[in-house]
Amino acid sequence: MFQEYKEEPLTPAGRLFIQPETNISVICCLGTHEPLRIDAIKSVIADSMLAKHPRLSSILVVDKNGHEYWRKTEIDMNRHIIFHNDPIEGAKDDQDAANILMADLAVSVPFETDKPLWELHLLISHKCAVIRAHHALGDGVSLLSFFLAMCRKADDPEKMPSMNPVVVTRSNGGGEAIGGILWRLLKLVWFTVVFVVDFIARVLWVRDETTVVSGGAGVELWPRKLVTARFLIDDMKIVKKYIPNTVSLSF
Fold first, then answer.
1. How far is C-alpha 203 from the chain's CA centre?
2. What is the pTM of this model?
3. Interatomic CA distance for residues 182 and 226, integer angstroms
4. pLDDT tens-digit readout, 211-248
5. 218 backbone φψ class: left, alpha, beta (φ>0; ψ -120 to 50)
6. In this structure, is residue 77 part of a structural domain?
7. Segments forming the whole domain that contains residue 49
8. How many other C-beta atoms can be found within 10 angstroms of the C-beta atom of residue 130?
9. Number of domains comprising the chain
């Protein structure tokens, strides 16, 4: 469709995410063991799908009727790649530095609409990169799939990396009588009605109590702080072992 038209209308979800009340960014971090090679990074990005994909190489425009469109443009890498040469002040280590920067970007200035709505922050001293993209470009899953499609296997540069499929184990009790099916359907309808009524009642009458940690006006603009949680695979396996009918994930 981008090849046929110079301008592509935003999807309903995209129009929602560009509203001032729901102006959301997707932020992710990539760390390396080796120092960042700036020239190589620029060369790879300039020749990658990141610079050629229609959505990521289009600017957001609004016509005289207030309708939003994506318009194809040329990518200026110098406006998208931002260098942080000095160490992040107050950071304990590289991971903490990335958390501080991402927390700042979460309430940072809005994207400039005269360029595609994404940027790459390179923390030279901390050997990591932080990607910030507007939610109108896609959600976390679609952007992750996009970046995965840009990668290649180390042992075979011609192939994309693969992920093992999710294995779901379900018990099958054989054939089910018509009475059991009707009973499950009846419970489904009943609990759906109960949950809908409960949701509407909470929206209309229930309010959070004011506490010492309740946010005031403009709380969405207050400074943010990110911390990193680490989980041991062995601990997750123990939980999975003692909880029946859990989903097995393998990567």
1. 27
2. 0.65
3. 49
4. 777 777 777 677 777 777 777 888 888 888 888 777 65
5. left
6. yes
7. 7-150
8. 24
9. 1
